[in-house]
Amino acid sequence: MKRYIVALVGMVVSMSSCSDFLTENSQNKSYIESYSDVDELLIGSGYMKYQDNEGYYPYVHLMADEVQQNKTLLLNIDPLNAANKYFGYYTWQGNVDLSFDKLSSSSDNYTFNKLYEHINICNMALYEIDKQSGNTTAEREAITRIKGEAHFLRAAYYFVLLNLYGKPYQASSSTDLGVPIKLTEMIEDVKFSRNTVAEVYAQVLADLSQAESFLEDVAHKSIYRADINAVNLLQSRVCLYMCNYENAQAYANKVIGRKNTLTDLNSFSGNIFLTETSDELIFTMGKYANFQEFISWNYKGFGVNEVYYNAIPDDDLRKSIFFNIFRETTWKEDPVTGDWVEIVVASIPMCKKFFDAQGDYVDVNVSDNFSMRVSEAYLNLAEAAACQGENAVAQGAINTLLQNRISSGSYTPVTAEGEELVTLIREQRRLELYNEGHRWFDLRRYAVATQYPQVATLKNSYTVFGIDESLSPIATYEYTLKMDDAANTLPVPYQIAQFNNMANNARSERQPSAVINY
Questions:
Q1: Which of 423, 422, 401 is nearest to 413 (CA)?
Q2: Which element (helix H / strand E) includes 399?
Q3: Secondary element (H or E) of residue 69
Q4: Hey, is 346 helix, strand or coil?
Q5: Measured between alpha carbons, how far is 49 from 284 in angstroms, rounded to an integer?
Q6: DSSP state, 98?
Q7: Cβ partners under 8 Å of residue 312, min gap 6
Q8: Alpha-carbon span 444 to 485, nearest angstrom
Q9: CA atoms within 13 A on the CB side of 268
Q10: pLDDT above 80 (res 20)
């Protein structure tokens, strides 16, 4: 019997049927015959994969306060035109797809459609795996594992979609609009409406509960396949976003109870911190997107937020291991000696978690948007405990992390309590998880947190350059966003919303708060 891949009406799905998909990805089988076919289906299209161009929701790195557009380089400022392309995201515009010059546009349809395609595969895998039975212990365990992975992935994708297109979890979540939920494998000739934020969170938790029950006693296959630690860590993250601090703490403790390895940066001798061989890595989907090269390596359109980088203490080893200084040089003739000398015209901090900004290219198979590390478990534990007034527990967790991050000669234990402790933990989260896709989502949830809410005000600057050989800046436009603004939530892609008659998120065009002319 031919089973069709489910699609939300109006979305483009690359393969129309399971038989078509399996012909391409499952060793020429025309239909699912065994659990191994379902496993291949999940591997081939259930997990995020490395994508051409920028990959999955690359703009999440631009919307927060982690990066800034570079405006001091003389050459190769932005050869891929990323700053113009992602202007709408970078400056929180109502029409996020429109560039600054209004002549070109990007489209978020890809992210929205691709994540729903993955959800469709999960739905299909869950339907098909329920029809399979194993004759041996190993086969039955494989079937159980596949069920657990499919539930985990579906939860993960709905969680990401919700935090892009739905408001952060808060008292109004029972009426706030989230994203459509589709759980069956069949195509339905209907238009879809948006479920509430609360309903989507309930589905995420339900899927993760199922995943936990299926993966509890299953051996871990690899960092590219979800296991019980990945499930518990995502449960901890979800509960933290919901301000369910008790459960966030409990799930973090489960992870740490099984895997508590942290890399001591005092003895770290590698070139790149975040690789597939890291002892801290629990799970990752795919690999970095090309977007990392915009802010990390050979394309210099964006760099690390300089104010933030300069504020990192020098005795914090992450400053030199997570970051690098890219130096732009030129040659000038000495007017006295007549000799040509090389001078530095710009020094820009770059992230080198995935690349060495001035060293050899290193190809790592780690996602920049969906990786899970042991350090997050400690951070989740620390924040959840501190928000419950368990200062000693929170201090113990954050101190365990910092002992492995601060120069051993200058490390002193954290003794702060209450709001001061929570603020410190959140700042450590910003640094520790820098450029891994957390910051924008964290800023959203901090603004509505039930304990110690923090409403940040962000400022991003967009510079327009001339077209002469010097590429000199013409003007800089400054934009601000307070994180309780409606623009902390993306609009559902226009074509999707229009086709399905969905109510969309209201966002107005944002005017610059200041203009600097050169």
A1: 401
A2: helix 391-403
A3: strand 67-69
A4: strand
A5: 10
A6: B
A7: 318, 319, 323, 431
A8: 10
A9: 23
A10: no
Please report, for residues 258, 287, 358, 375, 429, the alpha-carbon distance to residue 355 in angstroms, rounded to integers and kept in the order given: 30, 12, 9, 20, 21
CB 302 within 8 Å of CB 357: no
Interatomic CA distance for residues 200 and 44, integer angstroms: 26
Each residue's pLDDT tens digit, 459-495: 999 998 877 666 778 899 999 999 999 999 999 998 8
> Which class for 95: exposed (0-12), middle (13-18), buried (19 or more C-beta within 10 A)?
middle
- Quick one: tokens of 268? 């770290």
DSSP annotation of 329 reads E
**Which pair of structure tokens corresponds to residue 281?**
């890595």
Q: d(Cα 276, Cα 279) in Å, to the nearest integer?
A: 9
Q: Are 505 and 490 in contact (CB under 8 A)?
A: yes
Would you call 232 helix, strand, or coil by DSSP? helix
CA 12 to CA 107: how far, in whole Å?
A: 14
Residue among 176, 214, 180 at smallest CA distance from 198: 176
The sign of the CA dihedral 49, 52, 54, 56 is: negative
- Taking CA atoms, 380 is separated from 71, 244, 376, 401, 408, in Å, by 36, 11, 6, 12, 24
CB 310 within 8 A of CB 358: no
Q: Give the tokens for residue 417.
A: 């309590």
Give the HSE-up count for residue 395: Cα atoms under 13 Å, Cβ half-sphere: 13
Mean pLDDT of 311-337: 89
pLDDT band at 29 (very low <50, low <70, confident <90, very high): very low
Q: Which two tokens stand for residue 205?
A: 């938790």
Residues 6+ apart with CB under 8 A from 40: 22, 25, 26, 27
Residue pair 47/152 in contact (Cβ under 8 Å)? The answer is no
Tens-place pLDDT, residues 236-270: 999 999 999 999 999 999 999 999 999 999 999 88
**Measured between alpha carbons, how far is residue 199 from residues 73, 173, 231 in Å?**
48, 8, 20
User: DSSP state, 343?
Assistant: E
Q: Tell me which of 70-84, 86-100, 169-183 is least confident.
A: 70-84
Rounded Cα–Cα distance for residues 379 and 56 (Å): 25
What is the average per-residue pLDDT within 513-517?
Answer: 95
Handedness of CA 3, 9, 13, 15 (dihedral sign): positive
Q: 322 φ, ψ to 5°?
A: -85, -20
Question: Which range is least confidently modeled, 99-113, 115-129, 288-302?
Answer: 288-302
Could you give the angle at which helices 439-447 and 418-432 cross, rounded to 10 degrees? 160
Alpha carbons 71 and 472: distance in angstroms, whole number: 8
| Residue 508 CB neighbours (<10 A) | 12
Q: Is 48 helix (H, G, I), strand (E, B) or coil?
A: coil
Q: Rounded CA gap, 60 and 62, in Å?
A: 5
